[in-house]
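Consider the following input, taken from an annotated entry for Urease accessory protein UreF (Streptomyces kaniharaensis).
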Amino acid sequence: MTTDLDRLLVCLQLTDSAFPSGLYTLSHGLEGFAQAKAVDQDSMPVVLVDLLRHSVGPADATALALAHRAAGHADWATVAEVDRRLFASKLNREQRLAATRTGRQLLDTARLALGGEALDAYAELVAGRQAPGCHPVAAGVAYAAGRVPADHAVAGDLFAFAVSFVGAGLRLRLTDHRRAQCILREIAPVIAEVTAAALTRELADLGGCVPLADVMAGRHERSQARLFAS
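Applying the prediction step yields:
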């Protein structure tokens, strides 16, 4: 097996829906939009693109890229700082809980499946409460441990987010299986654009802003009937 092929396989494993991080149990705010009747079949892809460009890209993808870079240099102080800043940038309790719950599950499984000093060092930070353990930061460290290139790591995780979002749309009956695949293909240029931007940001630039999504997440948190955790 070539080294490049092995790195590709690590990327595919970490982003696969069968990887037990819990990412695919989230709607990423889509259920809140659906409950408010603020999204339909036609507008769902628009919401996805807006979240990628203005929320996930500037926040989660940027944190992943920064954590990947810092972990590659064993700079654990920076990894912890990226983690804390990302956690602080998430306004809703539901989003913070989802980020840390999936992050810690990813970390536990990645340590078992991939192993390595980088994942052990990050786990010590989380266990010692020096870092909250957000999913994008755990993913950045895991990709670095698997020697997956930063651009592939960021693009892979953004695609996993999009698959999870569209999957939630399927369960909420906002799309069907064939249309879902068309959406994922159509947003490929957006993922490439968001990936390139995330790789150039520094720590001071970390953080997204989609006020309507925050409002929907706040309403979803108080909803009595929920299909998804977020």
